[in-house]
Amino acid sequence: MNLIDIGKELDRPWMQKIVAAINGNVLRLVRYYGEYPMHKHNGEQFVLVLEGEIEIEEEDKKVHLSQMDYHVIPAGKMHRPIARKPALVLVCWREDIKTTLSEEGL
């Protein structure tokens, strides 16, 4: 299976597809585009950019990621992804992860 080919099916912003479930973790292919609301998870989140560029805005910093760059977002840290142009991203987290939006939603 080729992740880039699978990503061509993701034709809307924030559309995603589970590509694998391994040892209680889920790998999702996500089409990032635009600004996602500020939120946090009760577990770590691994983000790997396959195509394009994104920015992860965290409570205390901004992380710029280009193709094949990765970042681990700590559990409980408020963050949001921003993609000025469509980007293809592989995300990994626990199957039972919970997401909480910020009170402002931004």
Would you mind describing this structure in some detail?
The strands form two sheets. Strands 1, 2, 4, 5, 6, 7 and 8 form a seven-stranded antiparallel sheet that branches. The protein is mainly beta and 106 residues long. The model has no long low-confidence stretch (mean pLDDT 95). It has one helix and nine strands; from the N terminus they run αβββββββββ. The longest helix is centred in the first third of the chain and has 5 residues. It has a single domain, classed as Jelly Rolls (Sandwich), CATH 2.60.120.10.
- Rg over C-alpha atoms, rounded to the nearest angstrom: 13 Å
Mean pLDDT: 95
Helicity range of the residues?
A: under 10%
DSSP E strands, number: 9
Q: Would you tell me the structural class of the helices and strands?
A: mainly beta
What is the CATH class name?
A: Mainly Beta
How much of the polypeptide forms β-strand, as a percent range? Answer: over 45%
Catalogue the unreliable spans: none
Q: What's the helix-strand series?
A: HEEEEEEEEE
In the residues, how many domains can be counted? 1
Number of helices: 1
CATH topology: Jelly Rolls
Shape: globular
Largest sheet: 7 strands, antiparallel
CATH architecture, please?
Answer: Sandwich
Distance between the termini: 36 Å
CATH homology-level superfamily: Jelly Rolls
